[in-house]
């Protein structure tokens, strides 16, 4: 018999530790004058019912769960702009407290559903009373617009038990395109505002020098 509490304890620990570390990055940015690439962070350990459902669907046996189900521990970072995702990926890559096992770029290569997000599989060391345990954690990095779409699509998947009617699926794909356009427009607006600010600050500097 699987003791879920014992098995999932290091995963809970990893999620809590990573949430604190990532919120720490956000706090550091907020104290500086720089734009914060992390808007907010969430995390969860996969509920047992979802683990069992996914194991069945993907033919994963319970004894290979820890290596084969890479999202038992899941942490999500939300960003304001698409460009922030790159900044976060670079920050994560430069860290020395875990390793990166895999990257999946569903932003460049969006899923058929319309899903967009950047996934990183981390090998994270948890200190347990039995010694160090190096577990897998799935980190999802996405914009607020990507998160809005994914959250609603996910709850519809649940509502329709994974069999969303074709007409709704088509509309969700169009909604994903609208979310993409929204991200593009927000980045453009931000770029133009920054440009205008730079021009104004240069003008102020030259007026001061006169
Ligand atoms: P949860 O906890 O309910 O979110 P698969 O599960 O077969 O799609 P795989 O190999 O496990 O794929 O890895 P993948 O696709 O890199 O990551 C799986 C997780 O990404 C999912 O977890 C979702 O959180 C998210 N995701 C992937 N595709 C979609 C999608 O089309 N729509 C939404 N809303 N989210 C997606 P789970 O397993 O669904 O678990």
**What helical percentage do the residues reach?**
40-55%
By DSSP (H or I, 4+ residues per run), the number of helices equals 6
Strands across the major sheet, in which order?
A: 1-2-5-4-3
Low-confidence stretches: none
Please give the number of β-strands: 5
| Rg over CA atoms | 21 Å
Level-2 CATH architecture of the domain at 4-148: 2-Layer Sandwich
* Small-molecule components bound: ligand 0O2
Order of helices and strands: HEHHEHEEEHH
CATH superfamily of the domain at 4-148: Beta Polymerase, domain 2
Which keywords apply here?
210 residues, Beta Polymerase, domain 2, binds ligand 0O2
Summarize the structure.
With 210 residues, the chain is α+β, with helices and mostly antiparallel strands. It has helices at residues 4-31, 48-57, 65-68, 82-93, 144-159, 166-209, and strands at 40-45, 73-79, 99-105, 118-128, 131-143. Helix 5 (144-159) packs antiparallel against helix 6 (166-209).
Walkthrough of the structure:
Helix 5 packs antiparallel against helix 6. This protein has a five-stranded mixed β-sheet. It is built from six helices and five strands. The protein has a domain of 145 residues: Beta Polymerase, domain 2, CATH 3.30.460. The chain is 54% helix and 21% strand. By secondary structure, it is α+β, with helices and mostly antiparallel strands. The chain is flat and about 80 Å long. The model has no long low-confidence stretch (mean pLDDT 95). Ligand 0O2 binds next to helix 2 and helix 5.
């Amino acid at each position: 018999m699987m003791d879920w509490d014992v098995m999932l304890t290091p995963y809970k620990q990893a999620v809590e530790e990573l949430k604190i570390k990532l919120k720490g990055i956000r706090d550091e940015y907020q104290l500086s004058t720089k734009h914060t690439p992390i808007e907010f962070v969430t995390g969860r350990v996969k509920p047992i019912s979802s683990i069992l459902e996914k194991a069945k669907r993907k033919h994963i046996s319970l004894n290979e769960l820890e290596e084969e189900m890479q999202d038992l521990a899941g942490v999500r970072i939300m960003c304001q702009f698409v460009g922030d995702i790159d900044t976060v990926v670079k920050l994560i890559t430069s860290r020395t407290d875990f390793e990166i096992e895999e990257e999946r770029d569903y932003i460049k290569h969006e899923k058929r559903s319309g899903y967009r997000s950047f996934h990183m599989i981390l090998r994270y060391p948890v200190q347990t009373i039995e010694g160090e345990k190096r577990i897998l954690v799935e980190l999802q990095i996405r914009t607020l617009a990507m998160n809005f779409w994914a959250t609603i699509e996910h709850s519809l998947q649940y509502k329709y038990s994974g069999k969303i009617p074709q007409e709704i699926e088509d509309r969700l794909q169009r909604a994903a395109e609208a979310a993409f356009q929204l991200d593009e427009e927000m980045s453009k607006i931000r770029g133009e505002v920054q440009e205008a600010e730079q021009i104004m600050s240069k003008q102020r500097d030259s007026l001061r020098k006169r």
